[in-house]
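Objective 1b: paired records.
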Amino acid sequence: MVTFSMKRAGCAEHRRTARGRGSDFVAFFRAWMGDPLRVASVMPSGEGLARLITSEVTPATGPVLELGPGTGVFTRALLARGVAERDLTLIEFGAEFAGMLTRRFPEARIVQADAAKLKQCRLYDGAPAGAVISGLPVLSMPARKVMAILTGAFGYLKPGGAFYQFTYGPRCPISRRILDRLGLKAVKIGSTRRNLPPASVYRITRRPALKSAVAA
């Protein structure tokens, strides 16, 4: 009887998960149909990409800022890494996704805003964030907007903090020109084929300050 009950409970959980994934796909597809440049994909990111982009984040990282969380795939991965829900700030432009995130993550701070206007949001006092997880389609954005996003995000990152960005392309989605102008560097931390399409993740950090030459 106990075994039967456990199997029935497991089946019910599987059905709930399947329904949740189905509703996520529908929400993403509708958003993509409405604005393909903003959403840039017809489906949410896969769990393999979610694990990769959050792999260097721990509970000790500190507050985490997530940009373009969509249906919350990366958000769930952050919680699985041990990050407290109350330490998450989610920046979502789409009203349909912002409402969904508010229901799914009631302890997180959900801000419906354009990520290019982060600087004006005044999310924190100072720069306490340890990581920024970006689900934004930066490849489809103008350079000026990408620079505004990075400038705003790094304004909230503490020293040593990192900005994580995924891409479906063969190289870093942030151009070398933008990285040089903002004093940043990018390192590829891995790729995953367990995503449709396959994706890579880059860690973007501040370059070390140049030491002054010592006079002879």
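Objective 1b, second protein:
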Amino acid sequence: MESRFVWMDGRLVPFEQATVHFLSPAIHYGLAVFEGVRAYPTPRGPGIFRAREHAERLLHSARIFGLRELGYGAADLALAMSQTVAANGYPACYIRPVIYMASGAWNLNLDTGRHAVGIAVWEWTQFLGEEAFARGVRANVSSFTRHHPNVMMTKAKISGNYANSVLAKTESVRLGFDEAIMLDPYGFVAECTGENLFLVKDGKIRTPDSATVLEGITRLPADRRGPHRSPDPGDPASLPRRGVRSGPALRGLDHGGDARLPARGVGRGERSRTSSGAPLRKLGIDRAKRRLDNRRP
């Protein structure tokens, strides 16, 4: 996970010099917000997928978290992402912009701290592995519950929130699965540890209710696509009752960008049922490969 340059508060810094002090409150308290963005190869060079939308969501997360006077607008951050990708010379890469508390705030008051902004890029292909992209994901229903909105700000991509995801993902991998499906505090399907979740029923995409989930940039395009669009997105879903017959799928930029991965097995604990993931294989993987092969960011 190395590159040539990292963008830090308006400057491109050599990778080895892009450091954060040990006493940064971002490390101790998880005081940061971030985005996960992808750049894809195109005939004109790397193209960033929805750079402006990602920059706007980053700023939205910062405001929800309570950061003030950010100093950068969405256009500034989108340009900075482009400059960082260009400086590193990657034809395709993962992009990680972060707004983090660099100093102060030791009394747990954000207003007493100083925040900084950084953008790193690196080559990161399949988040869940090549087999998951080719065959589908084996997932279990996690014993961990997604945050209640009044416990953590679920509409902001806050670094500290991801301890919840880390616990769930580690548990699932240790049980032999690829990913965890998390339920909300009311027992309905929420999302996976780093991806939005979709269900296919009667040939149509259905998205779980968005009340407790972090709505991904790729979630809205999925709801709008072609004859598979659901007339009632956001319907609460109880995945344990529906099981794999509902055709769950994962979608997120971390696992490869504007692509859907079918879940070929869903279970609780150490038990799972498997399926071919056929509804999503045709709908998701084939379409994703065509988009990437055609170099459309």
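The helical segments are 25-29, 51-65, 74-88, 130-135, 162-174, 219-224, 239-242, 278-293. The longest strand covers residues 93-104.
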